[in-house]
Amino acid sequence: MKKARIIKIVSNRYEVLDEDKQRFICVAMGKLRKAKSPVVGDMVEIEHYDDRWAIERVLVRKNELIRPSIANVDQAIIVMSAKDPDFSTTLVDRLIFQVVYANIQPILCFTKMDLVEKDDPIYAQIEDYRKSGYALYLSGKGYDDDKLVCALQGKISVLCGQSGAGKSSLLNRIEPSFQLQTQEISKALGRGKHTTRHCELHAVAGGWVGDTPGFSSMDFQYMDIAKLAARIPDFKDYLGMCRFKDCIHEKEPDCYIMKMVEEGKISRIRYQNYVDIVAVIKQRKIKY
Ligand SMILES: Nc1nc2c(ncn2[C@@H]2O[C@H](COP(=O)(O)OP(=O)(O)OP(=O)(O)O)[C@@H](O)[C@H]2O)c(=O)[nH]1
Ligand SMILES: [Zn+2]
């Protein structure tokens, strides 16, 4: 029995990496696939039989995404461009909420910084994230990405952000083999691309990067407000201090979170974006 991590799945062929970084191709028995379908990022136990390796067991996941199916994601790099498309704290905050709700650590990466002047108002907005304690990196043409590279090392990451934010450009900048890796897949899958199940973690800067999760506004509708509130990093230091135990920090009396917003300890922008999402979640409840 060996412990290994799934890094690639094509149909029913599982590529895993063991603790000594050796690669094995495994199959998964039908019984296992029915109980808990193995996904990339999964830690599994594999066993050798006469002519092949088989996945015997999927170990407990620390988190999982559904689209794409990836387990045990360490962090999500939220990519937002300074310009083209326009910088939006509403969008950044919505991504933060979705990422933390999935129990994944958010990291912010502001790209295309070369497109704005040094005195652009977005610097103040970025500073607001820094003050709130978020790990953040500035990137773009002429910027060096060494610190971001360090943050990716040894971790499983996903990049999220709107189309055109610069996600692929960023990956290609920090890992020149990235484009090659993705081209090889499309070539190998050819016309079967849309019918063959395929999921992979790409080797990037000493870590692993999965496909971009397609978060949507639908995801908010199924959220539990209390759970979301408990996971927002800006609120973390001040939880459990409201008058009501089940306070959702919306309009309750003696709400400590609101007090902290008033005192400038919690970003007012992030709080407002949270309240807007609470309204979205509540709308769903009224409908049914
Ligand atoms: N000036 C400048 N342009 C950039 C930078 N990063 C990306 N771009 C340009 O922005 C456009 C979109 O970049 P992509 O990397 O394709 O964006 P993406 O997030 O991967 O987009 P999708 O694949 O649609 O999700 C391209 O024309 C890039 O050349 C940057 O740091 N500076
Ligand atoms: Zn409260």
TrEMBL record:
Biological process annotations from GO: ribosomal small subunit biogenesis
Enzyme Commission code: 3.6.1.-
Enzyme class: hydrolase
Gene Ontology CC terms: cytoplasm
Domain EngC GTPase: 71-216
Cofactor binding remark: Binds 1 zinc ion per subunit.
CC cofactor: Zn(2+)
Keywords attached to this entry: Cytoplasm, GTP-binding, Hydrolase, Metal-binding, Nucleotide-binding, Ribosome biogenesis, RNA-binding, rRNA-binding, Zinc
CP-type G domain boundaries: 62-218
Pfam families xref list: RsgA_GTPase, RsgA_N
UniProt entry tagged with the keyword Cytoplasm: yes
Residue ranges crossing the lipid bilayer per the database entry: none
Molecular function terms, GO-annotated: GTP binding; GTPase activity; metal ion binding; rRNA binding
Annotated InterPro entries: G_CP_dom, NA-bd_OB-fold, P-loop_NTPase, Ribosome_biogen_GTPase_RsgA, RsgA_GTPase_dom, RsgA_N
Location in the cell: Cytoplasm
Binding site for Zn(2+): C242, C247, H249, C255
PROSITE patterns with a match to the protein in the record: ENGC_GTPASE, G_CP
Job description of the protein: One of several proteins that assist in the late maturation steps of the functional core of the 30S ribosomal subunit. Helps release RbfA from mature subunits. May play a role in the assembly of ribosomal proteins into the subunit. Circularly permuted GTPase that catalyzes slow GTP hydrolysis, GTPase activity is stimulated by the 30S ribosomal subunit.
Subunit structure: Monomer. Associates with 30S ribosomal subunit, binds 16S rRNA.
Family label: Belongs to the TRAFAC class YlqF/YawG GTPase family. RsgA subfamily.
PANTHER family: SMALL RIBOSOMAL SUBUNIT BIOGENESIS GTPASE RSGA, SMALL RIBOSOMAL SUBUNIT BIOGENESIS GTPASE RSGA 1, MITOCHONDRIAL-RELATED
Name of the protein: Small ribosomal subunit biogenesis GTPase RsgA
Name of the encoding gene: rsgA
